[in-house]
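Page 47, continued from p. 46.
Same chain as before, 141 aa.
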Amino acid sequence: MARVKLSFPDEVFVFSTTMPVRITDINGANHLGNDALISMLSEARAQFMVKMGLEEKIGKGTGIIVTDLATMYQSESFFPEILRFEVGVTDLNKYGGDYVFRVTKAASGQPVALAKYGFVFFDFQHKKVVDLPDYFRERFA
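Result:
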């Protein structure tokens, strides 16, 4: 399988937050585990949504679901380093788009990972994809 290669322009990142690597985030190789990084990406996305005044659920059982995830690891990270998570939204389409992430070590700026995950708005009651709400499109157009 070909390696995943991600690249994003600096201007796409409109939010940042920091999080420590916890001892429980460390795997058997003594560095940040991929499962822990994915959880941290989700936390960064949730903080981003709050900061932007957006909710993942938009009433009547409609919300956001993740459709795919790609991560390009660039270096190891260890307990108790502080990581900086930069977040943005790109590639909006009729139903959703992509959240993009740049993760670096807060102290040095050393790259740790780039990631993106696709999302769509979904009606959980009727089990179908729905159009991207206008307020969301306007926020990131």
